[in-house]
Design a protein that fits this description.
The chain is of the alpha+beta class. It is built from three helices and six strands. The longest helix is centred in the last third of the chain and has 21 residues.
């Protein structure tokens, strides 16, 4: 969770957007964390495609996924040992900071597999996310990478963000 929070903070600083929770959770009951919490139907469809990708390619069960809804986007975080991701999609009416409608940030990837395997799978994921962006009208893909462990894509401690226009 720390990596995702760091990424959201960095994106807020870079893109001038603030990811704020859409609703405050009651301390007495835990809020739901499944896909139903996402209020934006377009983002829900994109996240459902990501969920399917993780299930089809790595066998990630839905119980290992957590979603959060924000007033300006949504996030997915996987706790699967084989291939886990942290990803957030932020939206803005009329764009913000000279960016169009929205940006998808891949904030972290971890795995119990070796570095060569995770590097190959990360490449496949990036190709999938580029296609997903075109399908769901997500105009930018931002990749956060570790400044601390440049030779190891599995861990993000503190992140730099690189943004690529998808279409």
């Amino acid at each position: 969770m720390t990596a995702l929070n760091n990424i959201i903070s960095r994106v807020k600083n870079i893109f001038g957007r603030k990811a704020t929770p859409a609703t405050a959770a009651s301390p007495a009951t835990a809020p739901p964390t499944d896909l139903s919490v996402v209020s934006d139907s377009r983002l829900k469809a994109a996240l459902a495609d990501i969920e399917k990708y993780l299930a089809d390619n790595y066998g990630t069960p839905t119980a290992k996924l957590q979603y959060k809804d924000y007033t300006n986007g949504a996030s997915i975080e996987s706790e699967d040992a084989t291939f886990a991701v942290s990803l957030v999609i932020l939206t803005a009416t009329e764009g913000a900071a000279h960016l169009p409608d929205n940006v998808m940030i891949l904030g972290g990837v971890t795995s119990t597999n070796d570095t060569d395997w995770i590097t190959e799978e990360l490449g496949k994921l990036i190709v999938f996310l580029r296609e997903l962006g075109s399908t769901h009208r997500i105009q930018h893909l931002a990749l956060a990478f570790s400044k601390d462990k440049l030779d190891h894509p599995a861990t993000v401690h503190s992140a730099d963000v690189t943004c690529v226009r998808l279409y």
